[in-house]
Structure formats: structure tokens, C-alpha cells
Hints:
Elements: H1 2-25, E1 36-43, E2 46-53, H2 55-59, H3 76-83, H4 87-104, E3 106-109, E4 112-114, E5 117-122, E6 135-142, E7 149-153, E8 161-165, E9 173-176, E10 185-186, H5 195-210, H6 215-225, H7 231-253, H8 261-281, H9 288-311, H10 318-348, H11 354-379
Parallel strand pairs: 1-8
Antiparallel strand pairs: 1-2, 2-6, 3-4, 3-7, 5-6, 7-10, 8-9
Amino acid sequence: xxxxxxxxxMLVQLLAVSTLxxxxxxxxxxxxxSPTVADLTVAQGTVTLDLRITLESFLxxxxxxxxxxxxxxxxxADYDVLRALDAAALEARLRDFAPQLLRxxxxxxxxxxxxxxxxxxxxxxxxxxxxxxxxxxxxTGPVPANAAALQLDWPKGYGTLILRQMGPENAYTGYIxxxxxxxxxxxxxxxxxxxxxxxxxxxxxxxxxxxxxxLDHILFVLGLFFFSTALRPLLLQVTAFTLAHTVTLALGAxxxxxxxxxxxxxxIAASIVYVAVENVFARKLNPWRxxxxxxxxxxxxxxxxxxxxxxxxxxxxxxxxxxxxxVGVEVGQLTVIAVAFLVxxxxxxxxxxxxxxxxxxxxxxxxxxxxxxxVERVFF
Length: 380
């Protein structure tokens, strides 16, 4: 027992040191795939798509529907070469790619395809090569004066697009995956979707952030699962985690609490290490574990909020979008637990050797991955 308390004390100290390192040393993550954000405007007979876009990932030919990290794709070397180019050289590469881009992105006005052209490009000069470079590109096309409805086909392989209609009241805001199309968007606005419509739209956004894109959150939840096969400890841990990240998700989305991702992401990795290592030494649910998990949940919630902030929330339906996103996150977490139970818990959870042969080795693997992520997010 003394040895366990000694180890726990060391873990707490390690987490404190890790937090300090994260605050003082961590750079912004550069390699995670971010969505493209576009503002849609119709004025004076012209439709304009003003995109904030990571051009290098498109020019490298990365399948953004499947990619989670640009370091882990076949075109990673090409992507790094493109990131090192100066603005003029990258724009030249964009001009070569433009014909394909303009064929792929299809814009319809009242059912008729409108030809688009690149009317402006603003590429920042190369700075820190470890940081992502977000460029601005404007696509424009003609629209009739009496145009009533617009629709955008976002190409397969182009990843997520956050589309925001600018100008009219009750404007459209949508989350479009690669290979999908927007619904018909009224030029005059009046989208005014109901509470349930917006809530349902944002559920898959939250789910997608857990499965398949939230591998760090998946490992944290698995760390909770492998602690014990008993239902009560699992429920207490998941409840504490859910309550905590719900609070900070709301506060972060409202802009009340903001902490840079360069701090939050390494601490999330450290939380994975802590939970997994404690699984190795703890045999029952001690009072402090739900408390610590609650604290970790607060940090994970800020991570969720940063993702939701990239998407933008529809005006007038903030609460519906927030609830939908959170529901999606919860469904994703429960899916992870259900799959883990069906794969190992149901078949082996009651065996005498389950803890020694499955739970502890799995926890050690989770801890090693979390430690690697922590080092990567702080030092690389």
C-alpha cells in the first residue's frame, strides 16, 4: 500500500512538471488537419467564396477526408516541401493546380452551374516551418440578378468545409464533408432552421471529432475502461469526465474561458499517461480518481471547444449547435466503450487473468503512446 501511494505521489508530481513544461515550452501543433472555412457572399451580380485554406495540403494531393495528421500520409514529404516555399512560389504552384480546383468545386445557381474563377490570393510569407500557414483565396462567379437559391458541391477528398453565408438575416451555416453538397441556400437568407434541425446537424460533427479523428480522446476513454470491469467505477469515471468537459465546452465556445491549444494538447496527452499508469497500480476506485478525471475533463472540454470554434456556430441557434456537438461527443465516447466491451470485456472481463494479461498491458501501451504524444507536442 505504501508503495502505491508513493507511486501515486510521483505521478502527481510528474503531471505538475508536465503541465509546467507544456505552458513554457509547447509550440502550436502544426500537423493536424484543419477544416477549410469559407464565407459565402452574393452582391452586385457576383457570388464570392472567401476561403481560409491550407493550400499545401491540397497541392500535395492529400486525401483530406481520411487524413488526420499530415505527417502520417504518403504525401507528407511533398507537403513539407510546399510548406517551405515562399509566397510567390506557392502561388505559382496554385496557378498550376487551379484548373483542377475549379473543375472540382461546383457551384449551382437555381440549378445551373456557375463558372468560378480565382479572383484573389493572399499567401503569408513563410515563417516558422513548424507552424501551419493559412492562406486566403477568393473564388468568384456571376449570378443573375433574380437568383433565388445557391448550392455548393464540395469535392471528395477535400476534407471538411465550414460554409458561412454572410449578409442576410437567418443566414446559412453548414458543415460539409468531402463529397457532399449543401442544401439549397436561399440568397435572401431566411434559413431559420429549427432547434432540432441544427441539433441533429451538429451531432455528427461531435461524433466525428471522437471517432475517428479524436485518437487522444479515444485513448483516454479506453484508459477509463481498462481500470475495472465493474460497472460502477466506469460510470463514476465517465460521469465525472462528461460533466467536466460539458462545462468547459460551453465556456470555451462562448469565449469565456480560452487557453491556447499549445498548452491544452500536451496536458491532454499527460492526462492519458496518468490514467493509464494508475490503472497498473490501483485495484479499486479511490476517492481522488474521479476528482482527477473531472479536472482532466475540464481540459478535454477546452480541446473540444477549440474544434467547435473552427466551425463557427449558427446565429440564433448557438444552444442547439452546442448541445448537438456535445451529444455527438458523448455518443462517440459510448461507442468506444461499447466496442471495447464487445471486443474484450464481454469475453474476458470475468477471467482471473484479465487484469494481468489484458488490462495492464493495454494500459501500458496507452501510457507509452500518451508519453510519446506529450513529448511530440511539447518539443516538436
